[in-house]
Structure formats: C-alpha cells, structure tokens
C-alpha cells in the first residue's frame, strides 16, 4: 500500500490533507483486496465509502485552498468534480452490473490519485 511520509513525492506538507490522502490509499487497498467471489456486494460498500470520503475530502481541500486564495482554485475544483463524477459512475454501474472489475477501478483510482496529488495538490498547497 502506498504510504505517504514527509520525504514522499505525494507529501503536500499540510497534515490534514496528507492524512486524508492516506485514507484514499487505504480505500484503494480495500478495493484491490476485495474478493468478488466471496462477497459480491462488498465492492459496492467500498465504493459507497469511497464516494462519501471523496466528497468529504474535496470539501476540506477546497475550503482550505479558498481560505488561502490558492491559485487556479476553479481548475482544481473542476478536477475534483470530474473525479467525483467518475466515482458516481462506478457506483451506478455496480448497482446495475455487480460484475464490474475491481482492477479497472483500482487502476483508475491509483493513477488519478498519484497524478492529482503530485501535479495539482502539491503545487496548490505550496502557495499556502
């Protein structure tokens, strides 16, 4: 599992944000470890948890960025909205077709998280 530490390229330097990012990697591990055959409904529960946590985290992050007038906040919010929409798409897909592949979700989530943290969050929080 990806673990964020102060020397990690995923470290923003903002404690609450780094700990919330770490929770995303915990949820990602749950998705990767999910055994569909043993618990077909379990993935839906994990994606629901991911969806709620995503909304919570994005609200926290956006309030902090607004408080400090971080540059390109609107662009940042649009990226968050696109991610939230994608997770909602997965939630709806799982409701109608519970055979969705955990690999697809985990690859997308891990790629998006690493890219977003490294290329957007770190730059945004550097200005604070």
Description:
The protein has 128 residues and is mostly helical. The chain has a single domain, classed as Hemerythrin-like (Four Helix Bundle (Hemerythrin (Met), subunit A)). 73% of the residues lie in helices and 0% in strands. It has helices at residues 15-33, 42-67, 73-96, 102-126. Helix 1 (15-33) packs antiparallel against helix 2 (42-67). The longest helix is centred in the middle third of the chain and has 26 residues, at 42-67. The model has no long low-confidence stretch (mean pLDDT 87). One of its GO terms (molecular function) is metal ion binding. InterPro entries: Hemerythrin, Hemerythrin-like, Hemerythrin-like_sf, Hemerythrin_metal-bd.
Give a quick rundown of the structure:
The protein is mainly alpha-helical.
Main traits of this protein?
Four Helix Bundle (Hemerythrin (Met), subunit A), 0% strand, 128 residues, mainly alpha, 4 helices
Please state the CA-atom Rg, rounded to the nearest Å: 15 Å
CATH topology-level name:
Four Helix Bundle (Hemerythrin (Met), subunit A)
CATH class categorisation? Mainly Alpha
Mean pLDDT: 87
Provide the CATH superfamily.
Answer: Hemerythrin-like
Q: Which structural category fits the helices and strands?
A: mainly alpha
